[in-house]
Amino acid sequence: TNVSFDESALANFVEPNELNEIKPMLNTARDELVNGTGVESEMREWLTLPKDYDKEEFDRIKQAAKQIQSDSKVLVVIGIGGSYLGAKMALDFLHDNFYESTPDDQRDFPQVIFAGNSISGSYVHDLVKLIGDRDFSVNVISKSGTTTEPSIAFRIFRKLLVAKYGEDDAKKRIYVTTDAKNGALRKEVAANGYESFVIPDGIGGRYSVLCPVGLLPIAASGVDIDELMQGAADAQDFYTTKPLTENGALQYAAYRNILYRKGYTNEILENYEPNLRFLAEWWKQLAGETEGKDNKGIYPSSANFSTDLHSLGQYIQQGMRNLMETVVKIEQPPFDVDVPKTGDNGDGIEYLEGRTMNYVNEKAFESVILAHTNGGVPNMVVNVKDQSAYSLGELIYFFEFGIAVSAYLNGINPFNQPGVEDYKKNMFALLGKPGYEDLKHQIEINAAA
Ligand code: PA5
């Protein structure tokens, strides 16, 4: 495998018997997931998706990506939460650090920019300015089709498309990813003949990156999505069958729950590469929505190193001892740069001449694990061979599988998110959406009391 789990820094935090003690419960949780005997098992279509997806649709995604590449300088991807974070994470992970801001004449593929993931008017204003008079297309992604943020953004960018290209040609630049049958967007597809893709019923937002939700933006940006799916398919074979002793995703689920039960209630996902920042944003939704309910669950947070060692590092070293850390470590970063020889030592780093930045980064990683474990923070490491599409496919599956097992292990339904829906309903009521009058009334009564 290209992904491996390393628990060696847990020696002072977990006794050898603890893994054996949790093993029967862990295997039960795994069986619930793999055999579909757990609660809400109809929502685990992502589990077999890498090997069992709609091949005709997959080809249409590739064709749509080619079309966008040929007629657009910018692809605006509209979506929020699970309809946004996976694609953003994958694009950052797979492209160079400045892919979003590379000028058109220096790029082979369209600039992919995300919208509809906040309610900021300034953001949309600035994005419209950035697009300027360049050709663009829109991929609007929403399973429900009723989420406020993407709905507003879609209205704005559809209007821009119509103004620029006219009603008929605008339709050819709109790609819709939504539910197979339900929702406002599906109706718009039927009415306007937009090219459209399906978010399968059994796949919730946070598990959707390998379905059209993630695949179209990823393919449009020039990534080989066959390679991505192959990594995930091999991971499916591996993680759904291998026993605990060989299975890093199960080990991850086991150790983070052993630690959670000792009071390490907050997990920080960390990296040493800036373009992994959104890996953590994606993982925070995956873990937070999967496990944070019934008044329990590990609180997922993130830090980006070495940057945050100069800010959050103080808290991690000496603050409350309820933290555990999981480092996602890239074994072979795509590039490296030498520390230059200058012939003087005014900056005091002559001793690093002849070394590379990746070497220094590696030493930072080793030093932090030593310091933080000495400071009472247990550390786990997820090693990833490289930043290829294949490795990312495996890494996505590793976390999806590990976190879902973890939820069952902790007696939690991994696949609902009633808390997210609460906020959406309240916002509809406060904004005066038709059909939410009773809730609005109830909120007003509660506020007056
Ligand atoms: O997991 C969730 O339910 C949310 O994060 C959703 O993915 C997000 O709210 C977007 O929902 P939709 O795709 O229906 O617009």
TrEMBL record:
Pathway recorded for this protein: Carbohydrate biosynthesis; gluconeogenesis; Carbohydrate degradation; glycolysis; D-glyceraldehyde 3-phosphate and glycerone phosphate from D-glucose: step 2/4
Localisation per UniProt entry: Cytoplasm
Catalytic activity: alpha-D-glucose 6-phosphate = beta-D-fructose 6-phosphate
Membrane-spanning ranges: none
Primary localization class, coarse: cytoplasm
GO biological process: gluconeogenesis; glucose 6-phosphate metabolic process; glycolytic process
Molecular-function annotations in GO: carbohydrate derivative binding; glucose-6-phosphate isomerase activity; monosaccharide binding
Superkingdom assignment: Bacteria
Keywords: Cytoplasm, Gluconeogenesis, Glycolysis, Isomerase
Keyword Isomerase: yes
Enzyme class of the recorded protein, top EC level: isomerase
A cellular component annotation (GO) from this entry: cytosol
SUPFAM superfamilies for this protein: SIS domain
Active site: E289 (proton donor), K424
EC code(s) of this entry: 5.3.1.9
Alphabetical list of InterPro entries matching this protein: G6P_Isomerase (IPR001672), Phosphoglucose_isomerase_CS (IPR018189), SIS_dom_sf (IPR046348), SIS_PGI_1 (IPR035476), SIS_PGI_2 (IPR035482)
Known role: Catalyzes the reversible isomerization of glucose-6-phosphate to fructose-6-phosphate.
Family, similarity comment: Belongs to the GPI family.
Protein name in the entry: Glucose-6-phosphate isomerase
Gene that produces this protein: pgi
